[in-house]
Design brief:
This protein is an all-alpha fold. It is 48% helix and 0% strand. The radius of gyration is 18 Å and the shape is globular.
Length: 163
């Protein structure tokens, strides 16, 4: 007769929750990739050289917000995991030339995974500023705003600027 070691109800719940979260993260990541692939890129304005996207103070606020709400899934270094997409490197290449408003709207509706849509527009703008900084976009003299992202595109980064 084979006996199994007893598993506490809490441990069983935690394992089940972790499995569901991994599945949900994979689904959200794939949805994001598929949704981005379907974006109408013909209407996106070309990225302009020399445009400043955010302030360094805003990116700093975004870094703190990122650590609080995003790092648990996307990693402290924005590198992602096997089932969660990175937010640097190929992320910048995938979004290059796309309207920032589309990325901002996706973040506002779908993130964070554990509580979608709970961050304020200002927090999402700060997060986007942080992500832009980490992907090599230049800082400037004005904060990125929820209204401003509607007229901006994700900059095209060179291999030298992407971390």
């Amino acid at each position: 007769m084979k006996t199994s070691s007893p598993v506490s109800p809490r441990a069983g719940l935690m394992r089940g929750l972790q499995a569901r979260l991994r599945g949900a993260a994979l689904g959200v990541g794939l949805f994001g990739i598929m949704a981005h692939a379907a974006l109408p890129m013909a209407h996106a304005a070309p990225a302009r050289a020399g445009i400043a996207y955010y302030t360094t103070a805003q990116a700093g606020r975004g870094a703190l917000t990122y650590q609080q709400f995003c790092a648990v899934c996307h990693g402290a270094d924005l590198g992602g995991a096997f089932d969660v997409p990175p937010l640097v490197g190929r992320f910048a290449a995938n979004w290059a030339g796309a309207p920032l408003g589309q990325l901002f709207d996706y973040m506002a509706k779908a993130m964070p995974l554990f509580a979608p849509g709970t961050l304020t527009p200002a927090q999402n703008a700060d997060l986007l500023a942080f992500m832009l900084r980490e992907n090599g976009a230049p800082a400037g003299g004005r904060d990125l705003t929820p209204e401003g992202v509607k007229t901006m595109v994700f900059p095209k980064m060179t291999a030298a600027t992407v971390k």
